[in-house]
Amino acid sequence: MPMRNQKRPALRMNMSKLEAYLRDQFGSGVRLLDAREIGAQGTQGMKDFGYGKPVFIRFEQNGETREAVLSTMRGDKYGHQFYWDRAAILMFQYETSARMEKHVRPLALGYVNQRDDMIPVNDPREFFILNEMVQGYDYFRDLERIRKKGLEQQDLDRAQSFARWLARVHAEKKDDPDLYLRRIRNLIGASECIFGLVDSYPHPYEMFPPDRFRNLECRLIDRRWKLRNYSHRLAAVHGDFHPWNVLIQPDGDFRVLDRSRGEWGDAADDISTMSCNYLLFGLYDQPKLSGPFERLYMTFWDEYLERTNDREILEVIAPFYVFRSLVIASPEWYPNHPVEVREGLFRFMENVLADDSFAYDRINSYMS
User: Fold this and answer.
1) Which residues on adjacent β-strands are paired with residue 253?
2) Each residue's pLDDT tens digit, 175-202
């Protein structure tokens, strides 16, 4: 399997592959007549920045001459770093352009595979992925058992194994300040992250009125500017490492599901996600973190810090805790929480922004 984090070579388009694509798309009666770049630098007036190099194509289809323009997108720091970013833009253009008056009509959509073959995508409606089947049970079942029957040594061992695994994952670093800023920008403002979650709550919401949401957002803007100074932290991440995305296998090992929101980010994302769920389960029994879930939480944190010595994570983790708290306090995603549980998560979410550095070993100081 190719390494996904390696720099991809430039696309190589040749006449034979282009002609093969046109035949796959429009039928065997196609003959390519001409292909050349258009819109070269200096030919677009004052506009000096573009996303791709369009190629003029002339071909013959069943005796009729047709002309078209083939366009790609180049990667850049404006949310187009990865091929799936660029694919989303091109899919949008293919789906919607024909519905706009006077817009040029899209003729075809396709992709270039690892061998530089051009493959048609015809009339897409939805995309899917096929994954392997792994035997096991969801980790949250362990947390439910712990609430009822108490903690076992294997539970502490498992929390340590999670921390060791994350330490290995996060050890892979990437030097790309623009990508780190994108990840923080998405954390604060993306539709599936903090601002999007705020908008998903009932409005007005009695338990967390609009003024509290507004104050929360203002404080997060300050954190966004603080995190501009931490772009050196860009690391490989899972992005959604919570108890419903971990499968415990019959031999006691674990596998993970549903990597989300990008390959690169801040380690604080993964650490906050799992540790905040220990808080969630603990709040079902006490208005603070105590007992078995406090032990799990401390075991997880202590092991991670021992393995990584990443004390800097405590300076950046607060907005990630806000995001995860909004998720697990959501009345839409978790409709059956007792009032006391939501109130505890909201207290934590607001208080964690008060300190410049998170005191992980004094978590209950954020619960009052």
Assistant:
1) none
2) 999 999 999 999 999 999 999 999 999 9
